[in-house]
Amino acid sequence: MQPITGYEKGLEAVEELINGFTGFARKAQQQQQQSARRSGPKGPDEANAARAQDEQAEKPVFDPDQLALIPETDRRWSWVEIDLSAIRHNVGVARSLIKPSTRLLAVVKSDAYGHGAVRVAKTALQSGANYLAVATVDEGIKLREGMVGAPIVLLSEPPATAAPLLLAYKIMPSIYTPEFAIAYAEKADEYGIRAPFHLAVNTGMNRIGVRYDNVVDFMRKVSFHRALDLVGTFTHFATADCEGTLDFGIQVKRFTEAISALREVGIDPGIVHCANSAATVRYPHVHFDMVRWGVSLYGLHTCQETRSMINLKPAMSVHARITDTRTLPMSEGVSYGLNYRSPGSVKICTVPVGYADGLNRGLSGRTDFIVDGTRVRQVGNICMDQCMFEVDLRTYGTRRRLDPQIGDEVVIVGRQGDSVVTLDDMANKLGTIHYELACAFGMRLPKVYV
Fold this sequence. Notes:
alpha/beta; 8-stranded parallel β-barrel; 5-stranded mixed β-sheet; 14 helices; 36% helix; globular
């Protein structure tokens, strides 16, 4: 039996509030009209008061159901498009790399790297994934409230106070401290149920996990508790996407030794998994019982080496519509600081995308957008909610002249015609990784699934 969710209660409360508000407004309007009809001849003061009442009665009552029908892309002209066929394709790529009996875990943490956790999770599961992974308790709850029923593993150990939520929503935590393990098991015992978990092993990344040569002692400390149920054992590679293999090989050796040590003392490690996206592609010998398909699920490569090994399709593109255009005389500045000055014969166009939407301010003057299949230069400092780009109005040679208007679509990230701007392009200019940019674009911009 599924728990009653706060989400459902909240929806009921909001619906009651809206219905009560609109009902009250309509009733007040009717009463004012009836009162006006009953009244007889009035003096000047009474007439003014009656007119004020009539004006109040004539104010419109908005239907919240109709207001809700206005799509997010018509409330602000900027959005992220998520190509679900690309998600399906990328799941198929992963399945082609592993044995039919090997499980495929889709990592959907951080709202599926900005792509929308519920929709991506359902698409991945329908396409061949078996397991899901999240980073926080609330991310797991969101999946359950979105009617996602697959096994979910939490890739960290939360506070012990979150144990009831883990049990109620069937989210398996990673465990690496005896204090949490016992507290989690005790809470499960109170409800008369099991406490499933995955054992995290630290093989060299030194972020989380039980040290690889201490796993047997750890399990002996906690396995006495009847509620604990070891479902899987895993580690995480720090350098699977790097050129050198020395550190990677050390981690593999430590992990396999830890698994062997558990088995030698009669402890079943459950589902053994360690391969992230890079290792899934580059090192088939570490697939074991399950692989974790993370950033590659979204069509993003982990390193240069994988580009020649597999064909991934990016699922995210970022779009906007022009909200303002103006031609500037020579030397006029644009945006904060006026760092950009018009060279003349250019049109400056504004789009409602800024650094609060994921367009990093460090890209100011360093990235291109695409208009009608042609790359155009972003100019001026990127603002919190808006930015500008320039269109050269001069005609010369065989170059096609652009003259964009308010409402025209602009591609911030993605492909249009033969032109393309990628997250990799942006990440390279910023000295960061595309993971960060994908997550950022997905935070505020509405998502449109295609």
